[in-house]
Amino acid sequence: MTVTLSANEAADAPEENRAARYAGLTAEGWFRILAPTLIGVLALVGWEAVVRINEIPPYLLPGPLEVWRALIREWPSLSVSLLVTLQITFAALFVAATLGLLLSVLFAQSRIIEMSLFPYAVILQVTPVVAIAPLIIIWVDDIRLALLICAWIVAFFPILSNTTLGLNSADQNLTDLFRLYRASRWQVLRRLRLPTAMPYFLAGLRISGGLALIGAIVAEFVAGTGGRASGLAYRILEAGYQLQIPKMFAALVLVSLTGIAIFLAMSLISHLALRHWHESALKDRR
Known about the structure:
- About 80% of the residues lie in helices and about 0% in strands.
- By secondary structure, the chain is mainly alpha-helical.
- The chain is flat and about 75 Å long.
């Protein structure tokens, strides 16, 4: 059975498709935003209600309003600490992405090098950073550099492993075609392997963004460095020692929001890089 549209119906069809979007988002897109937002608001309201009904003192469990007031009150010191933590996080992520990509390309060019070095990358990944952070802090005189190394150790492996997998996942038929046309190693790498590995690299980058933040926080906990140039981890420790629990929660909120912001930023970068050609991004536009 064939269905035909009149001229007016055909003209109205695109308008109906456009009407399915509001402020640039589909109904599903808005649901993805509003559903978790509603759950979060209900959780905060319930938290505040439990604290008020049971009259829980702030030094045991502050309510969301008390945490918000502490965040406003302590913002001058917390903002400086947040900047310090962000500097270490993004520096570690940049180094991890650069070294991870370069080593992955090296592994893709030589199976012998990959088999020789990859096990050491695995060892580096499975070794708890809490266990080796004190040694790194002792061995490295510059505390900022020591924190950077600790955060890099945590963030490095996902980029290396994902990108290596992507480089080795190039279609074998296309690889044979490149060889048939006598393409050089550089041409195969640039025109086939790297585009194939791009989604894997970006997926590793999304994972490593949060891990770099975790590594920076853990390293700051171990270092315990104070002063004005200290990170959020020290502010959490400081608030705990002084029983300023609302300030501790405020610092934790900043850490959580920073992690969410980093993940969203990495997801946006991934979407912008893949939206015109990769299936994972194209399907969201249908």
